[in-house]
Amino acid sequence: MYTTTNEEGILNNYAAEPKMYYAEYPAIWEQRKYVLQGLIATLIVTTLVLVGFSVS
């Protein structure tokens, strides 16, 4: 941890910065998984909205 002290003796702590890396493009099976998750989320939200309209 990196620490500095100002003129009044107050400590100022800095967190250690994580190592940087570049994100990799998702594989085709990961892309398909994301599409499936999106479809399921859309179905859930649509169902909740329709139930909300039918109740009110």
Any chance you could write out the topology, listing elements then pairs?
Elements: E1 2-5, E2 11-14, H1 28-55
Antiparallel strand pairs: 1-2
Structural key phrases:
56 residues; single chain; two-stranded antiparallel ribbon; 1 helix; alpha+beta
Binned strand content:
5-15%
User: What's the total number of strands?
Assistant: 2
Kindly report the spatial arrangement of strands forming the biggest sheet. 1-2
Unreliable spans are none
Largest sheet: 2 strands, antiparallel
Helix content, binned percent: 40-55%
Structural class assignment? alpha+beta
H/E series? EEH
Rough outline: elongated
Number of helices: 1
* Integer average pLDDT: 91
- State Rg: 24 Å
N- and C-termini, Cα separation: 56 Å
Can you walk through the features of this model?
- The model has no long low-confidence stretch (mean pLDDT 91).
- The chain has one helix spanning 28-55, and strands spanning 2-5, 11-14.
- The chain starts with a strand and ends with a helix.
- The protein has 56 residues and is α+β, with helices and mostly antiparallel strands.
- It has a two-stranded antiparallel sheet with strand order 1-2.
- The protein is 50% helix and 14% strand.
Tell me briefly what this model is:
The chain has 1 helix and 2 strands. With 56 residues, it is α+β, with helices and mostly antiparallel strands. A two-stranded antiparallel ribbon has the order 1-2.
